[in-house]
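Here is one chain, start to finish.
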Amino acid sequence: MAFLSWLESTGYVKWMLASLVAYPFMLTVHALGLALTVGVLLVLDLRLLGLYPTIPLTSLDRLLRIAWVGIGLNALTGVSIFMTEATQYVTNVPFILKMVFVVLGAVSLAAMQRVLRRNASTVEAGQVPPHGRGLAIGSALFWVLAVVTGRLIAYL
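Its structure:
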């Protein structure tokens, strides 16, 4: 806890909390990163669940870079947001659950990317690669739960 208390007392955190724009900027970029990640992945998840079969999987594979950019933005801004109340966040159940779902979502994204790269060119148009449906269900579930638990942080 000493390290977390130190984080909360750094000049960076004091500046963020005193600034009229720093903390709102971090929250805004965090929301945009989440929108990039979840938006791209829900489209991919729906495609892997059999909807929109005319969308080629190869085009969706290229979109996954945008999802990774969103995750990167969320990691950078999330650390800054975390630092402002680190001692409270580490015991906040919704925060802990959110982090679990984010990690599971990122792992499922990496697995999905491997499946797409391995199978996208060999799977016939409109078909779903092996394990695609399971990955899509897991991905959608993890990211929706990350969003919901993230919103609950402020209330519980």
